[in-house]
Amino acid sequence: MAEMDTSSGGGHKKGPGVKKSKKLSTRVDLTPMVDLGFLLITFFIFTTTMSQATAMKLNLPKDADKPEDQNKAKQSGVITILLGKDNNVFYYEGELDNSASNFKSSNFHDIRDVLIKKKNSVKELKDFVVILKPSEECTYKNVIDILDEMTINVCTRYALVDITDVETQLVKKSEEIAAAGGGN
Amino acid sequence: MGRAKLPRKSTSIDMTAMCDVAFLLLSFFILTTKFKPSEAIAVTIPKSVAAKVAPQKDFVQIIIDKDGKVFLEMDDESIKETVGNALNNTKNLGLDMKAFKKSPFYGASFGELKSFLALPEDQRKGNLLPGIPVKDTANNELTEWMTQVMSAYQGKKPFFLVKGDNLAKFPAFKSVITAFKKNDILKFQMVTSPEGVPVGSDLWKKAQSGEKREE
Lengths: 184, 215
Prior knowledge:
The complex is a heterodimer. Chain A is α/β, with parallel strands linked by helices. Chain A has helices at residues 31-47, 111-121, 140-152, 165-183; strands at 54-59, 78-83, 88-93, 104-107, 129-134, 158-160. By secondary structure, chain B is of the alpha/beta class. A six-stranded mixed sheet of chain B has the order 1-6-5-2-3-4. Chain B is elongated. Chain B starts with 15 loop residues before the first helix and ends in a 7-residue tail after the last helix. Classes of the chains: A alpha/beta, B alpha/beta. β1 of chain A pairs antiparallel with β6 (187-194) of chain B.
């Protein structure tokens, strides 16, 4: 009788010439899988940005209407920093003199040294006051940067003050000079 | 004397345990990663050395985008409702309270607020919206908003946050400060992304000596 052999031969006893099929090991080499796992981990760690935003505090002083309520600062310990457009920084120590000879220009990189120098030259640390005057042209980033600079250099007394017209003019003028100088 | 024969050991190690650890770590990282929610107003925040994490709840946030437009964001729904009702009563705006409560942020003048809320939420994108008018010092509408928010909180102090774009100009920030000052809000925080303290600076020395930073 013709019969189909459906069994794959596992149950059959094989004939003498047929090789016995080798018993395969169930153990798989997991090394590539481990590699892949760690690769993915490194990928995730590197691509994850710690987006946890931080917050810096700013306490504003109450507006003092009467001049006797206003905070006084010793002239020798005061440094005024002005922020112009295109990340320009200007500063003067003490009071601005009439010819504006103590009005100096700087940038965000050098201002730290200026601050440190001033801080060290002031005899009493409580007399060290920084006045920040952002102009209309400067950006929010500039303001944050300079406030951050206060934290970095541990300047405990600083104030955010409106810029005066004289100072605005000076900033504009110096920026024009710088622009003209850069063009040559 | 006959030396003991060392059995030759196989050099292949069982990788199963290591594989388990690797994938456990992987799943841990994937599951704990929080995706940044897509924000309607694109703001690139500046960096600072501040180390305190920004508060996640009970905040009133002012957003300044790169064109200097100002938006207001609040998280507490009941406060939103109180503010909305107060605005409806005092200014007769005829606002849809449901939409007002649902809106994640506000960015229009009082006159345009109704049409702002009528917009479908996916169309309320920062660059198309007018923002709360603040430029005009005589008519700084944010002052009014803050007054309403303060009265809605009834003496409790929420966290006031300012989130500004790097490129925003200072006048916008100044008018926000003015609006705060007029309502006697003298303490607020600015949202920044963290940055390392420069080596050698006074703050760095302080941190090295173990002194705690005042927050």
